[in-house]
Amino acid sequence: MKRKHQRMLLVGGCVLGLSVATILVFQAFRSTGELFVIPSKIAAVAPKNGRAFRLGGMVEQGSLQRLQDGTHPTVSFRVSDGIASETVTYVGILPDLFREGQGVVALGKLASDGSFVAQEVLAKHDENYMPPDMADELKKTGWNPNKGSPPAAALWNAPKVSG
Amino acid sequence: MIAELGHFGLALAIAFAIAQAILPLWGAHRGETRLMQAAPALANGQAMALTVSFACLIWASVADDFSVMNVAENSHTLKPLLYKITGAWGSHEGSILFWCLILAWCGAAVALFGNNLPAALRARVIGVLALSACGFELFALLESDPFMRLWPPPENGRDMNPLLQDPGLAFHPPMLYAGYVGFAIPFAFAVAALLEGRMDASWGRWVRPWTLGAWCCLTGGIALGSWWSYYVLGWGGFWFWDPVENASLLPWLTGTALLHCAIVVEKREALKIWTVLLAIGTFAFSLSGTFLVRSGILNSVHSFANDPARGVFILGLLGLVIGGSLLLFLIRAPLLGASGVFAPVSREGALVLNNILLCSITAVVATGTSYPLFADLLGGMKISVGPPFYNATVLPLAAPLFIAMAIGPLLSWKRASLVPALMKLWWVALIALLVGGFCLYGMTALPAVFMAAAAWMICGALADIVERTKLFRVSLGNSFSRLINLPMSAFGTTLGHAGLGVTIIGIAGMSLATQEVVLVHPGETVNLAGYQWTLNGLSDAKGSNYNARVATITVKQDGELITVLAPERRAFTTQTMTTTEAKIHTNLVRDLYAVLGEERDGAAVLRLHDNTMAPLIWLGALVMGMGGLCSLLDRRLRVSVPTRAASVPAGAKKA
């Protein structure tokens, strides 16, 4: 084994490892990347094939309902982005920071009736927090989160919100 | 007054650090012995000044000095004493000061234990450490001053985030930081080697114990963090592939590669350039891990102390340290000289494979962590990557690594053949197949495969010891005396590899975990995983700074009492925040885990988990850490190096 051959083998090994890694990454992005969607974009953007995505928006004031399915406690609430809203159902314990009128991100899929079934509901450990993704998307609907706290949900639900 | 003393200590440390960066490096460059000899004293001075400074911060916190802004924002008179102390490194400013403190201690450690290093190398290592310390201490002083006064002082503080008021989190950050910052020493050695343009086997021998120490701390820190999120966040999971977690995993992966690579440098003087690059890369990941997360550039569901406004300074600093060292690497690396030659199938070859796979995994995890950021910047796409992404990318790369882990240690250096090594592993393969087949009865395919892989790794690790002691081929007594004479590092390898196997069992076993969310009235019983869980009642309790609601749950199996769990919901008065306290009963093979949710008309929402084999995840990490310690205790690492470098003085090192 000459030094030159050894170097070629090493470089070849590295290239092979990295290309396998690249292929895996692209494959995985195509099949598992979780899109962030706000309610008004669901019809246009959300994956229909039963793939999970993240739904973000504000929890509508007064929309939280506690239901019961056998011994399983279920909750349902509406998530709004000021233009459209989407019903979310979730079996489980809501995060401690879940509040009506505040931001929420739910990971889940669309059910056949068009409602959103969440596997996971995320709220940050900080009550003033809004995920940057959500802040950006919500800005496009007319409200700038840097200009203060979100408008009241009643107002928020109206089609035109200025901020 | 105390706060001003701390502030002065920090400023003094910077003065020391600047002197410590310039004098020894200049001295080493010009060959001036007196300048080089100043290095240890300056390093000790810097460490002492920062120690005093940090002690002042703890003092201010314990004495409830709310005129210090950092204390006012993170403490409260009613906060328990333990958390007043640990709060000193829980806040943003405090954590940065703590980071600098550990870096200064690293410099002092090299000064203290580095007596057998060549004078120029030691001076350069200490100088490089100080050079990076300068930047971060300046950041602490100018941008995130922990001793900033507040006037008028508030009557009471705003208290610490209740999630952080937990004994697990009291010890997680120091451990993790010791791991992160510990990799500064291999980094400094690498940069020093580049400056010298010379690197030999003894370099590998000096670097290895420091790398091992940092690696042990990082392993422990990651395990503690994962355990904390398991029992405090109450989600029942142990790893969320969150940016914060990934940030700690990345240096662990490259650090593990570095650990193995340094062996090749030490034994065979090969792979030198690669090792230097790995040392730089590991510290770069450590730095970006701490600071990108802290600066809020990567957002996460559980980062606590961050402040986006400071991001620019941090980015500049990171660019300077990482970019500077990479530039130096580009210019000087060719000087390090040719490597020893080895066949593809050999111990070196196996270690190269280990490195390629570990670095590929690193690349994949780094891509997944940073992709959402770039996707947003470039295409305006909002995509996040969750556990399915990492499962699909990391597992295929980890599988060959697991297979190679058992074979590698059985290969000889320089040239080996695969067939005899595989022949020695026939019984390991048999056990792995049996375990896999057995697991297929209760599990789906993927976890069963990983159970088999874990059995292969654990038995393969033992096979190395079996081979070295010639068990069953010579008399038992003979084997025993061979076992006693084995170097400690052999046990280190075995424990390290077997520990990873144990962790893999735990992770694969979690696929058997079952959970249920139920709404029950007091007195009602739920069946889960062969246990009867009865809610006995709900009651109120009071802690020093919170009010709690406690559910008492008895768990029985076939009428026999297993345990009584009392999960709580705590409402913290100052921070107006509620936390859920999960309660766990463990027998080291299975966790019974209960969380109390909200209450509805006298009934309580409970989430009950039966986590089979979950404790093995952390036990495995403990075994891995013990493996690292074993290697660290190896005599060969402590005794002075046989001189290949001419300048090494003889004489044993006290370590």
What structural class do the secondary elements of chain B suggest? alpha+beta
Enter the CATH topology name of the largest domain in chain A.
OB fold (Dihydrolipoamide Acetyltransferase, E2P)
Q: Return the average pLDDT of chain A rounded to an integer.
A: 75
Number of helices of chain A: 4
Overall body shape of chain A:
elongated
Q: What is the percent of helical residues of chain B? A: 55-70%
Mean pLDDT of chain B: 87
Largest sheet descriptor of chain A = 5 strands, mixed, barrel
Q: List low-pLDDT spans of chain A.
A: 151-163
Please give the order of strands in the largest beta sheet of chain A: 2-4-5-7-6
Helix fraction bin of chain A:
25-40%
- Briefly note the structural class of the backbone of chain A: alpha+beta
Cα distance, first to last residue of chain B? 38 Å
Report the uncertain regions of chain B: 300-305, 640-655
What's the number of structural domains of chain A? 2
Q: What is the N-to-C succession of helices and strands of chain A?
A: HEHEEEEEEHH
| CATH H level, superfamily name of the largest domain in chain A | Nucleic acid-binding proteins
How many strands in all of chain B?
A: 11
Oligomeric organization of the protein chains: heterodimer
Q: Into which percentage range does the β-strand content of chain A fall?
A: 25-35%
